[in-house]
Every structure is written in structure tokens, then in C-alpha cells.
Amino acid sequence: MTEPIIRSLLETDLYKFTMWQALFTSAYNDNSAEYRFVCRHAPAQPLAELKEAVEREVEHLCSLRFREEELDYLRSLRYMKSSFVDFLSIFRLQRRFIRIETKGDALEIVASGPQMHVMFFEIFILAIVGQLHAQRFPQEAALAEGRRRLAAKVERLRAFEHEAGELADMHPFGLADYGLRRRFSSAWHEEVVTTLMTQAPRFFKGTSNVYLAMRLGLTPIGTVAHEFMQTFQAVHDVPLRNSQKAALESWVQTYRGDLGVALTDVVGMDAFLRDFDLYFAKLFDGLRHDSGDPEAWGEKALAHYAALRIDAHTKLLVFSDGLNVDKSIALWRRFAGRTQTAFGIGTNLTHDFGPQFPALEIVMKLVRCNGRPVAKLSDSPGKTICDDATFLAYLRSVFEVAA
């Protein structure tokens, strides 16, 4: 019998837990929500063919419960609240809240119901679909190419050690694995992470995969994603113009100094900075880039800190959009003399097998909350997500973002 793709309910990104907890402990824990799977570019082999296999994996997923050792691990993270972990001890994903269908060659997956429940499907669904698709490749040839490319990454990092050591006036370089959602397979993900932690320990700082972090003794890494900020576009007592500030304030009140990296591109960097005033700039440790030109973004962030008379050396810029090792090093060279930096690499670590074995460009995003549309404008046009053109236009108008 083939081993299920998802082995544990910890096998998701850390920020799913941190956002989940922030909503659980807030006044918005009774939200309803809809999350929709999107494949940005149709693959050569139709995803519709995977429907039955996806359904089997989801049935298994919905049978899982958190084990005692997993709950103990979550309790060991200082920012996890006992009341939330107690809730997780009785939690189980419910099959009735997720619909899996086909439309032509496309696979349609929609999770809808209480947000406190359906928000947890996202990463599991992406990992399941991605691995089932990858299983259609010739495995031996793909893994041989993947290992060759992984070895080249390790050699690049080893060569970089001498250079990084000579630049004493720069903040140190570090990267983390953010690749769970588009990984080739769970086994390959573990091989990549184990290789980096043993062969490039100076630079490898941890993983977003909570299950691997627990098993391998690594630091679990992550703070917040777009869905948390988007949620505040649709709660009853927050005007749309104040949605970013309300989300940031909610985060501050939940974590009170922990997990202090803010995501900037839900309605675009310029609109974000208009809301990220001296109060928030002092309370948050730094900012995360996830779309648009990373160099232009970094310069805007540093200019904003300078205008607020905040020493950028005390702040952190996290880069996480489409990175590889070379891009990360180039960004480090540009910014590490002026601020702290960190780099989250996803697909290029866990699904880099060359053009003959491409990763799917898939997401599963919040599209409605409390019966109202929500949107992610992004700083990259191809990443904008909204199924309601009227709301999207209104959001642009409210935040003064050009189409």
C-alpha cells in the first residue's frame, strides 16, 4: 500500500498555525470563508485526471488527529497559547467542507465553511496535488537531476562562505526552506532539508515545515500570509480603508513582540507603507517581500525607516518571492550592509528538476469571507487574486492603487 502523502497535521507551514491562533483568540473566530484552488498555468497533463487520487488523499487527511507528542511540541513554542493547543487536541478536518470537482481538464477544489476550520486545508491540498502530479514524471531521471542541482547549490554556498566571512561589516547571510507547498514529494523535501542542514549549516536557518522542524530539530520559520490581512477586508466592524491597520493591530495584540515580520503586498507596498506608521514600524521587527521588484521594494523599505528616523540596522527585511541561491546572495550583497536580511527559498529548493520536470504554479487562496469578496492586489500583476471585479476596483480606489 502506498504511504499517504500527508503523514501528520503538523506537515504544514508554521504561519498556518500562527494565523489560525491569531483568529482563534480574536473577536473574529466565527468568520465564514471560501478558499479556492488555482493553477496559474495548465500543465501538459490535465489535473482533472488526478481527481480520484486527490479524493483518496483528502479522505486520509480528514482521518488525522494531532498526536500527543505533536501537541507537546507546539506547546514548547513560546508564542503558542495553551488554549489554542487544547483546541487542536480535539480538532479534525471535515470532509464535508471541501469540494473536489473537474471542469474540462482543470481540477476545481473549493473549501468553504467556518474559517477556523477551512483555512487549514490550504497547504495540504497544494502538497497533495503537486506530489500526485510529480508522480507522473519518470522518477529515477527526475531525482538524478534534482540531486545534481542540489549538490550545485551546496557547492555554491560553500564557495560563498569565504566571501561572506571577509565582509565583517555586513549582517550575516541566512536562508530557510519555504518549499512545502510546491515540493516534488515529501521524501524529496526531507532529503533537501537534511542535506542543507548537514552540508551548509552556517547558512541554513530552518524550515517552514513544522513536521520536519520537529523531527529534525530545526527552527520552524514563518509569521503571516495574505489571508490574515485579507480577512480584515470583510469583517463587520472594520472599514475597508482601515483593514491593514486592524490586521496589524490584531497581530500585535496576539503576539506582543513575537513573530514581528509584516507582509507588505496585500494591497501593494506603497499603500502598505502609508499605513505602516511610526507606531507599527517600532512594534514590528521587519517586513517580508513577496511580489514585485525586490530591490525596489528593499529601497522603499529602507527609505521609509529613514523617514521615520528608525535605525534600519535594528530591522529585518525578509525576501521570499521566486528566490534561488544566487538571487538571495545578490540581494544580501545589496542590503546586508544597511539592514538585517533573511531569505526564504521555496520551489527552487524542493522542486528544481529542470524544465523537463516543472513544478505546478498552484495556490489556494481566500476569495470570500463572511459572504463578501476579498482580494490580494500584489505588486506583481500575475499574482492578483479576486473573483469580483467590482470589489477589486473599489479596493484599488480606497487604497489609491492604479490598475
TrEMBL record:
Gene3D superfamilies: nicotinate phosphoribosyltransferase (3.20.140.10). The modification Phosphohistidine is found at residue 226. It catalyses: 5-phospho-alpha-D-ribose 1-diphosphate + nicotinate + ATP + H2O = nicotinate beta-D-ribonucleotide + ADP + phosphate + diphosphate. SUPFAM superfamilies: Nicotinate/Quinolinate PRTase C-terminal domain-like (SSF51690), Nicotinate/Quinolinate PRTase N-terminal domain-like (SSF54675). Residues 10-129 form the Nicotinate phosphoribosyltransferase N-terminal domain. Its EC number is 6.3.4.21. Residues 173-401 form the Nicotinate/nicotinamide phosphoribosyltransferase domain. Transiently phosphorylated on a His residue during the reaction cycle. Phosphorylation strongly increases the affinity for substrates and increases the rate of nicotinate D-ribonucleotide production. Dephosphorylation regenerates the low-affinity form of the enzyme, leading to product release. It holds the Pfam family NAPRTase_N. InterPro entries: N/Namide_PRibTrfase, NAPRTase_N, Nic_PRibTrfase, Nic_PRibTrfase-Fam, Nicotinate_pribotase-like_C. Keywords: Glycosyltransferase, Ligase, Phosphoprotein, Pyridine nucleotide biosynthesis, Transferase. Pathway: Cofactor biosynthesis; NAD(+) biosynthesis; nicotinate D-ribonucleotide from nicotinate: step 1/1. GO terms for molecular function: glycosyltransferase activity; nicotinate phosphoribosyltransferase activity. It is an enzyme of class 6 (ligase). PANTHER family: NICOTINATE PHOSPHORIBOSYLTRANSFERASE. Catalyzes the synthesis of beta-nicotinate D-ribonucleotide from nicotinate and 5-phospho-D-ribose 1-phosphate at the expense of ATP. Belongs to the NAPRTase family. NCBIfam families: NAPRTase (TIGR01514), PRK05321.1 (NF003704). This is Nicotinate phosphoribosyltransferase. It comes from Duganella margarita.
